[in-house]
Amino acid sequence: MKYFLFDIGNVLVDFDFNVLCQTIADAAGRPEAVFTDHDIEIHNANEQGLISDAEWVDHLNASMGISWSVADLTATWSRIFTINEAGRGMFLDAAASGVPVYTLSNIAKHHVDAIENNWAGFFNGADGLFLSYQIGVRKPHPDIYRHALNELNASGEECFFIDDRSENVESALELGFHAHQFIPENHAAIREAAKAFFGW
Known about the structure:
alpha/beta, DNA polymerase, domain 1
């Protein structure tokens, strides 16, 4: 059995973190909002499921001087996300071909909710979702890839994986995945590699 695993951010949907920063700055009534290393650490803890969305919002409110709810944060991300046509097209084509399709993504619950709010049934066609906030670990840590392999009862050699970040691709390659960095200049080559891998 062969499996197609997709990252979500900048693969299935695009986003610009700078838009989040500017939206926070506007809400706080100041020129810019800068995330400190500690802010990023708390953000990553949210994506690992170590803290809830509500706890992340509480931190944002205290750190940035805003008064948001989880609904406000989710609505902001709904405005930020746009469809990545190349990645989404590959996802739909793979699902239509009968290839088992999964996500493998660093993501928090409010991100998933924001995507579903924009496009109901967005993940229809996926056989499963491997999401960092549910698994408790983020890429590029090898344990998140091992979790996916264990759940699939598969080897890395049976998995075709695309991700926009080079460090995540490198970790997957070390575990035997057929992994490719999903950036615009690679889109056509990745589609051809997928065709060869799955025999389309």
